[in-house]
């Protein structure tokens, strides 16, 4: 039997987890969809401008550097200058991108490549403004909804209903805009878009040097824009977790409680740092997001709930998910490590298969990028993930790790010979693959290692065709 305090805490913890899940789903179905639409529109605008430049000045579908650097003159320059001034006059508040546009507009010598960059900045500036406005509305709603529910949930169990706790929009916006991680979400939006603009400028310049065609250039730009969307989606999820937990903390304090309990989401994706804080109780006066309160990392899903005491009570249970993702009840004081080792790890086996993401043209989509030597790769990772490694050696090479549905290494694909063609005499440029073999030790743990290198199959070549094509071109120029 649970005592009254344990019942209340278990109820509040369950409600906190339910709110986090509900708003996470709402984030995916509303604001993240909107962000995807914004990025697709910006991508279409940028690709259209690239196509227009090629359409006017390219020969044999290739644009020479001389043509790209040719200066705008006469009517062409005047029309461009007027369009820039018209755009800048039409925006209400400046941004880091509009400031850069203003600098470009003041120049008397503008090349065709500069003009393309300016159009890219305009597309990204529009993107940044729409992203900031949409995120602001969403985060304000998330804060107010969680705060009011937190106040009500405490009152429902204690019988004490707080009055005069209305939150106005100015207060909600100020809380949402707090730079809890060093920068506000607005600053991060514009920093990300500024970096994206610089990356796209480099991509276009390098593509011209390499003599890429319009479709090839468009594909490279698309990859960078999709990476930008991924950053934006990660940002809105993390900021949503912040405002949800900040609202929970404010409602806990407003209700007169002095402590809160850290609640990690118990499933196979829980981070190590959240595991270490799981079930710990902290003073509400020492609430510090990023240190002892969520979010502790990007995409954090942990929550907090009010605690009526600072000494942990061993009574009671909490909900968790087992291997089949069914809800189960576990001891309330069970830590993440105990839960994982009891309910998950014994059931995990290498499958060798995963739901690895691909584009419409069949090429693979990396879920993580690592700038390091491939030999450092771990044998266990996130389920269904694809980690792309870029070699730090002089001979640029991309390598990919594929983790199966349970997070075991399944396949490694190398788009080159690691600088040793004799040891890897495969394909056109040494591209090869390793299938991982796993054996269960007497201790019950799994040990894995890659088999000998072999030629890529048809499926793997389809996945890697862009990387192999780029490697072939690099080889031809060396």
How helix-rich are the residues, as a percent range? 40-55%
Unreliable parts: 310-315
Bin the strand percentage.
5-15%
Strands, count: 11
Inertia-based shape: flat
- The number of helical elements comes to 13
- Write down the Rg: 27 Å
* Sheet with the most strands: spatial strand order: 6-7-8-9-10-11
Overview of the molecule:
With 478 residues, the protein is of the alpha+beta class. It is built from 13 helices and eleven strands. The strands form three sheets. Strands 6-7-8-9-10-11 form a six-stranded mixed β-sheet, with no helix packed on it. The protein starts with a helix and ends with a helix. The longest helix is centred in the first third of the chain and has 47 residues.
Descriptive tags:
single chain, alpha+beta, 11 strands, 12% strand, flat
Protein topology:
Blueprint: H1 4-29, H2 31-57, H3 65-68, H4 74-90, H5 96-105, H6 112-158, H7 169-176, H8 185-210, H9 214-254, E1 259-263, H10 272-277, E2 281-283, E3 303-307, E4 317-321, E5 327-331, H11 336-344, E6 368-370, E7 386-390, E8 398-403, E9 409-414, E10 432-440, E11 446-450, H12 458-463, H13 465-477
Parallel strand pairs: 6-7
Antiparallel strand pairs: 1-2, 1-3, 4-5, 7-8, 8-9, 9-10, 10-11
């Amino acid at each position: 039997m649970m005592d009254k305090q344990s019942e209340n805490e278990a109820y509040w913890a369950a409600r906190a987890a339910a709110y986090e899940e509900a708003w996470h789903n709402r984030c995916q179905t509303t604001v993240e969809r909107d962000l995807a639409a914004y990025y697709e529109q910006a991508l279409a605008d940028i690709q259209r401008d690239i196509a227009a430049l090629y359409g006017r000045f390219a020969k044999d579908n290739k644009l020479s550097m001389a043509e790209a650097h040719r200066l705008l003159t006469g009517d062409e320059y005047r029309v461009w200058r007027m369009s820039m001034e018209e755009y800048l006059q039409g925006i209400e508040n400046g941004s880091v991108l509009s400031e850069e546009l203003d600098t470009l507009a003041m120049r008397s010598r503008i090349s065709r490549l500069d003009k393309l960059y300016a159009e890219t900045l305009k597309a990204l500036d529009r993107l940044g403004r729409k992203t900031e406005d949409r995120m602001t509305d969403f985060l304000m709603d998330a804060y107010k909804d969680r705060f009011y529910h937190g106040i009500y949930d405490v009152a429902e169990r204690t019988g004490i209903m707080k009055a005069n706790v209305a939150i106005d929009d100015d207060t909600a916006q100020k809380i949402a805009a707090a730079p809890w991680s060093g920068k506000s979400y607005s600053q991060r939006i514009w920093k990300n878009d500024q970096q994206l603009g610089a990356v796209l400028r480099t991509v276009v310049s390098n593509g011209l040097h390499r003599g890429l065609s319009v479709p090839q250039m468009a594909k490279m730009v698309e990859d960078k824009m999709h990476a930008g969307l991924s950053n934006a989606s990660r940002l809105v999820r993390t900021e949503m977790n912040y405002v949800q937990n900040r609202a929970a903390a404010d409602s806990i304090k407003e209700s007169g409680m002095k402590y809160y309990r850290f609640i990690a989401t118990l499933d196979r994706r829980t981070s190590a740092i959240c595991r270490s804080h799981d079930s710990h109780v902290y003073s509400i006066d020492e609430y510090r997001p990023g240190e002892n309160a969520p979010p502790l990392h990007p995409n954090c899903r942990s929550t907090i709930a009010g605690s009526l005491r600072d000494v942990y009570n061993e009574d009671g249970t909490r909900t968790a998910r087992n291997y089949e993702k069914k809800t189960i009840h576990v001891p309330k004081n069970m830590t993440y490590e105990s839960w994982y080792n009891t309910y998950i790890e014994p059931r995990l086996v290498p499958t060798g298969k995963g739901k690895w993401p691909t584009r419409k043209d069949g090429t693979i989509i990396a879920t993580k990028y690592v700038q390091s030597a491939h030999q450092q790769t771990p044998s266990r990772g996130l389920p269904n993930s694809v980690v792309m490694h870029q070699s730090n050696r002089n001979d640029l090479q991309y390598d990919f790790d594929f983790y199966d549905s349970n997070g075991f290494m399944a396949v490694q694909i190398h788009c080159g010979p690691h600088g040793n063609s004799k040891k890897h005499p495969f394909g056109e440029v040494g591209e090869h693959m390793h299938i991982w073999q796993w054996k269960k030790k007497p201790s019950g743990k799994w040990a894995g290692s890659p088999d000998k290198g072999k030629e890529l199959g048809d499926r793997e070549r389809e996945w890697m065709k862009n990387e192999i094509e780029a490697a072939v071109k690099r080889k031809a120029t060396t």
